[in-house]
Amino acid sequence: MLTGRDIIYISSIEWSFLWQPHQEIALRLARAGNRILYIENTGVRAPGLGDAGRVVARLKSWVGSLKSRGVREVAAGVYVCSPLILPPFGTGLRKFVNRHLLLPLIRRVFRKLDMRDVIIWSYLPTDTVLDLIKLLRTQRGGTIYYCMADFPKLTPDSAQIAATESVLVEQSDLVFANCTTISKRLSKRGKQVHVFPPGVDLAAFPLSFDSSDNPRGPQPVLKIETLKHPVIGYIGGLHRHVDFDMIVKMANARPDWSWVFVGPLQASTEKLEGCRNIYLEGAKPHEELAGCLQRFDVCIVPYLRSAYTETVVPVKVNEYLAAGKPVVSTDLPTVSEFNERHNILITTKNTRDDFLKGIEQALELPNDPEAIARRREVAALCDWNVQMEAMSTLIEQKLGEKT
Asked: Tell me: the pLDDT tens digits for 150-179?
């Protein structure tokens, strides 16, 4: 594992957001003996009315960090900065304010922590990030771009973000991607791109547990324990990419099944709340997810097909497999590609009948030790320990070449 380095980590999400690879990687790097300055999302577009809650939360985080001079330590070796930054791709005046007034405040935090020879690790490809890299890059450091979304397709400033992403790829020592689709797109710029899909902490999903022996481990979920089987379960945020209409149709078609959703409510769930056999458990601590999964008969990924989900790699797929559960997913490109390699999932179209047929097929699958072990073997291929060692090797090789 990479160790003893100072890393400026330009994230595309907040630290307190639903747990994603961004926080997982940062925390693992810190535990390995590195220091992380985690810069929360600086955005890829101007905020709208729907972003009001996020803007208010950013202001609160910024005000809360004033006592500690703009940074707060959230874990050993992980320092979070919540900068006030004007949106990217703006007017000349907006860029001037960012470059000469707001971004230097991040440099002040960087100096306060006495960071040296930094590795700059970015998930964003905006002009703001390029300015920040120019401000903080050191001769003996390095730059990493980890692309987890097809940004030119997802933002109104498509041409501008494509241009700045091209510059970032050119300037980066290493380029990582979450799937082959993004890898192929970025590699057209003549750069080698390494594919690292989201990993899974296999140890966090034991097949059995005893809460009396491990009081901090996965705990029983009493409400789920009382539900009628089969229990069809989903873990993750309930956001706009989830096919709520299909879920309601399936729940109405199978009133004797229990449909359980564990995760934060990130979009209106009014449609789901109207079904008596749909149970919204809300967000749970990560350590309780294994307890929930133990009570699911089939795990699902009911995502819509869209420009966003064309390149999304659902973290939950490997978590479901790590728990030894059969999985049914809509036929997202990344999920279908994963299944072509491993033949371990059931993929279907976004229709009530097709998805129900997939679940019924999953309910008939064997759940003996051999089948469960096979699912865990596939999940283990993306274990975070394996992923981080591979990333660290590439980083150390590149830094060695520069030295």
From this structure: 999 888 888 999 999 999 999 999 999 999
Task: Determine the Cα–Cα distance for residues 369 and 309; give it in Å rounded to an integer.
Answer: 33
CB atoms within 10 A of CB 357: 15
Q: What is the CATH number of domain 6-199+383-402?
A: 3.40.50.2000
Can you give the length of the chain in residues?
403
Which CATH entry fits the domain spanning 202-380: 3.40.50.2000, 3.20.20.190, 1.10.10.10, 3.40.50.1370? 3.40.50.2000
Query: Beta 119-122 vs 78-81: how paired, if at all?
Result: unpaired
Mean pLDDT estimate for the chain: 88
Of 149, 11, 175, which Cα lies nearest the Cα of 78?
Answer: 11
Q: Within a 13 Å sphere around the CA of 197, how many CA atoms are in the beta-carbon half?
A: 22
Which two tokens mark 290?
């294994």
| Structure token digits, residue 249 | 């149709």
Spell out the alpha helix ranges (H) of 67-212: 92-97, 103-112, 127-136, 151-154, 158-171, 180-187
Mean pLDDT of 37-56: 66
What does pTM read for this prediction?
Answer: 0.86
Span 124-136, average pLDDT: 92
Confidence of residue 56 (pLDDT cuts 50, 70, 90): low
Question: Could you say which DSSP state residue 133 is in?
Answer: H
What span, in angstroms and rounded, lies between the C-alpha atoms of 357 and 35? 49
Number of Cα atoms under 13 Å in the Cβ half of residue 89: 20
- Amino acid (one-letter) located at 39: I
What CA–CA distance (Å, rounded) separates 32 from 27?
9
